[in-house]
């Protein structure tokens, strides 16, 4: 007992400096007593917050002008001159000689008498260089603010709290009640704790989370507030310090520290420091979350960008393939028309049947002329397409193409649209307006459904054609016109002339170069080509892969009479395309196409009533079936003849008859 007291007895001695080099920073302590204790515990004369240093690691003593050092049984030992000293033995050291414990280097230096006053201030400040020094705390704060990885940050917060307060254990709690989690639970040497949920007092944590105030007890087992708690008794808690963790002003967790073996382990100063550390940690957590959120969103954005780029690349490849396929079809059509001896290109008009070949031959003759053209045909046969071909292949191709449907505009408005008007001509005429005839100067004027024009307007149109000039409504001036006039109608104008519902003189002015467009039922051999063209166009517009068509579906389409002609066929294909998934099947067709008999009644026109004969209908059907068989046989004549039930020789004769190229 006396020996122990003698060891701890402090005696005055001549002043000296103790220099400590820690983490690249040097601190100097001034002492005028002996012995001097060094260790990780805060009650040492020189506290050093390093895990490799024991709580009571080393003792320095001064005897006269000599200095002695003794290792107090440290775990990692003490090095003097590079050699480990024996625990418990005294060794002499000289000024400037290095004693190494853990990562720290320590040396002593006697103080000259004249430096005493100067060194007093050094002692007052440098002696605070342990775990609670401002420099150490500032470095902890800087490390917290620089760490942006959430997992490493939470570990760093707990380690900083343990190191700052010299706690035995530290817990970081997030959330409340049933959603409470403990992502970090460590002891003072950095080891993770098992079952952290049962290793702390949940009641103390709940109080801090609810109140937002710090809780400090120097002996929980004697504290009236906590001694009745089962967790305090079971865990044998002594010192406990718990502070709320605020993130953006909201309490989202707590920092919980304890020491189960030592009473009075924490002070009011520890409480203040932990409060500051908790607030700074909340800011650091918020920053780390923001960075993580931005990183996640950026990664999602990059992933979406890559996915869009991949889809665009696929789509581009599919569209390119479709464009090439359509180009091949057009080249084949152009080649077949070249074989017919046509001078102009009508690739926008799909068709190879004899009826359409006759239309192309007429177009070839009419294109270069300037006389009016009248296009006759049922609705949906493509009359405007023919009018555009006349314009685009003719000498006026550089001029405008103006189109107007006479049946779509009321008579009172149609006149002003065609001929124009001057300001004040009628109510609402606030400025001069050029009519369509004037707008079409140097180009082509296409008037569709000319048979719907009123008698009064027919008279005015006749005057325009004869005089080659128009007079705007409300004007006394005339405007010369230079156009090619193309008209179209689905009505029998010859019959209307006889009935005196259409002017005979106007009829002959317009009916100079007539073109009769065949209905689709008269050119069923073109249906496979039309279907292919419409499918390709629709898929291209929708940005979808080119759909396929089932052979039986093509049979239904080829068998139907199409009273609405090509317009009806296009509507049918587009509707079926929306219902299908890659392959157009019979069930995707409308009921009347699947069952044509349902759409026929006793009032349907007979051959002579529709301007044809039974022989023509049989020929059209024969040609259509031959074309379908060739499509099914992929151009193989032998296979096609088997499908038709005729000899190959008979098939060849019919191919020559209908001018069909396999």
Helix fraction by DSSP (H/I, runs of at least 4): 40-55%
Total beta strands: 27
Mean pLDDT: 83
Largest sheet: 6 strands, antiparallel
Gyration radius, to the nearest Å?
51 Å
The spatial strand order of the largest sheet comes to 2-1-11-10-7-8
| Overall geometry | elongated
Structural class: alpha+beta
State the end-to-end distance. Answer: 121 Å
Weakly predicted, low-confidence segments: 1-7, 115-132
Taken as a percent bin, the fraction of beta residues is 15-25%
Total helices: the number is 21
Written description of the protein model:
- By secondary structure, this protein is α+β, with helices and mostly antiparallel strands.
- The chain is 42% helix and 19% strand.
- It contains 21 helices and 27 strands.
- The strands form 7 sheets. Strands 2-1-11-10-7-8 form a 6-stranded antiparallel β-sheet. A 5-stranded mixed β-sheet has the order 4-3-5-6-9, with no helix packed on it. The chain has a 5-stranded antiparallel β-sheet with strand order 13-12-16-15-14, with helices on both faces.
- A hairpin with an 8-residue loop joins strand 22 and strand 23 (479-480).
- Helix 3 runs antiparallel to helix 4 (150-165) and helix 15 packs across helix 17.
- It is elongated.
SSE layout and pairing:
Layout: H1 2-8, E1 11-22, E2 25-34, E3 36-39, E4 46-47, E5 58-63, E6 66-71, E7 79-80, E8 83-84, E9 90-93, E10 99-101, E11 104-110, H2 116-126, H3 134-146, H4 150-165, E12 169-174, E13 181-187, H5 202-211, E14 215-217, H6 230-235, E15 239-247, E16 250-259, H7 268-339, H8 354-366, E17 373-376, H9 383-393, E18 401-405, H10 411-419, E19 420-421, E20 433-434, H11 436-439, E21 444-448, H12 455-467, E22 469-470, E23 479-480, E24 484-489, H13 493-498, H14 504-510, E25 513-516, H15 527-542, E26 548-549, H16 551-559, H17 565-579, E27 583-584, H18 591-594, H19 614-632, H20 637-644, H21 648-658
Parallel strand pairs: 3-4, 17-24, 17-25, 18-21, 21-24, 26-27
Antiparallel strand pairs: 1-2, 1-11, 3-5, 5-6, 6-9, 7-8, 7-10, 10-11, 12-13, 12-16, 14-15, 15-16, 19-20, 22-23
Helix pairs in contact: 3-4, 3-7, 4-7, 15-17, 16-19, 19-20, 20-21
């Amino acid at each position: 007992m006396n020996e122990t007291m003698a060891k701890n007895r402090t005696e005055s001695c001549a002043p000296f400096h103790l220099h400590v080099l820690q983490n690249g920073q040097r601190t100097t302590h001034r002492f005028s007593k002996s012995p001097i204790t060094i260790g990780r515990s805060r009650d040492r004369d020189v506290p050093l917050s390093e895990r490799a240093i024991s709580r009571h690691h080393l003792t320095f003593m001064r005897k006269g002008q000599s200095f002695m050092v003794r290792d107090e049984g440290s775990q990692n030992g003490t090095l003097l001159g590079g050699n480990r000293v024996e625990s418990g033995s005294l060794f002499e050291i000289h000024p400037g000689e290095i004693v190494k414990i853990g990562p720290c280097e320590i040396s002593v230096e006697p103080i000259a008498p004249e430096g005493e006053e100067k060194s007093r201030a050094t002692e007052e400040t440098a002696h605070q260089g342990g775990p609670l020094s401002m420099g150490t705390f500032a470095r902890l704060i800087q490390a917290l603010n620089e760490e942006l990885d959430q997992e490493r940050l939470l570990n760093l917060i707990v380690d900083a709290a343990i190191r700052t307060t010299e706690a035995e254990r530290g817990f970081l709690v997030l959330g409340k009640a049933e959603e409470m989690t403990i992502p970090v639970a460590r002891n003072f040497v950095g080891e993770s704790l098992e079952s952290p949920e049962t290793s702390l007092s949940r009641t103390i944590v709940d109080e801090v989370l609810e109140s937002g105030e710090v809780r400090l007890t120097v002996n929980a087992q004697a504290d009236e507030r906590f001694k009745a708690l089962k967790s305090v008794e079971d865990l044998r808690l002594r010192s406990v310090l718990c502070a709320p963790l605020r993130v953006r002003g909201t309490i989202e967790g707590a920092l919980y520290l304890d020491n189960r073996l030592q009473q009075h382990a924490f002070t009011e100063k520890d409480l203040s420091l932990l409060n500051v550390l908790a607030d700074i940690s909340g800011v650091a957590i918020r920053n780390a979350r923001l960075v993580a959120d931005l990183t996640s969103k950026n990664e999602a954005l990059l992933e979406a960008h890559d996915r869009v780029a991949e889809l665009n690349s696929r789509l581009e490849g599919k569209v390119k393939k479709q464009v090439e396929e359509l180009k091949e079809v057009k080249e084949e059509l152009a080649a077949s028309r070249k074989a017919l001896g046509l001078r102009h290109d009508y690739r926008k008009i799909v068709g190879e049947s004899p009826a359409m070949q006759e239309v192309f031959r007429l177009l070839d003759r009419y294109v270069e002329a300037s006389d009016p053209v009248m296009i006759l045909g049922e609705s949906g046969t493509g009359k405007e397409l023919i009018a555009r071909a006349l314009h685009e292949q003719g000498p006026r191709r550089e001029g405008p193409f103006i189109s107007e449907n006479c049946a779509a505009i009321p008579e009172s408005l149609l006149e002003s649209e065609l001929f124009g008007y001057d300001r004040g001509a009628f109510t609402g005429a606030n400025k001069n307006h050029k009519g369509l005839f004037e707008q079409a100067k140097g180009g082509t004027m296409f008037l569709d459904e000319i048979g719907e024009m009123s008698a009064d307007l027919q008279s005015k149109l006749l005057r325009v054609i004869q005089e080659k000039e128009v007079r705007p409504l409300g004007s006394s001036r005339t405007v010369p016109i230079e156009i090619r006039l193309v008209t179209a109608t689905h009505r029998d104008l010859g019959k209307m002339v006889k009935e005196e519902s259409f002017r005979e003189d106007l009829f002959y002015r317009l009916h100079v170069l007539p073109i009769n467009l065949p209905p689709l039922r008269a050119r069923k051999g073109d249906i496979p080509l039309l279907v292919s063209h419409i499918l390709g166009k629709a898929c291209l517009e929708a940005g979808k892969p080119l759909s396929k068509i089932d052979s039986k579906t093509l049979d239904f389409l080829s068998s139907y009479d199409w009273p609405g002609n090509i317009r009806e066929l296009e509507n049918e294909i587009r509707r079926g395309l929306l219902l299908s998934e890659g392959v157009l099947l019979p069930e995707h067709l409308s009921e009347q196409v699947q069952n044509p008999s349902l759409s026929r009644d006793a009032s349907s026109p007979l051959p002579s009533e529709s301007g044809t004969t039974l022989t023509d209908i049989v020929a059209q059907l024969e040609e259509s079936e031959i074309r379908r068989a060739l499509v099914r046989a992929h151009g193989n004549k032998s296979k096609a003849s088997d499908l038709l039930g005729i000899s190959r020789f008979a098939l060849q004769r019919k191919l020559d008859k209908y001018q069909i190229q396999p």
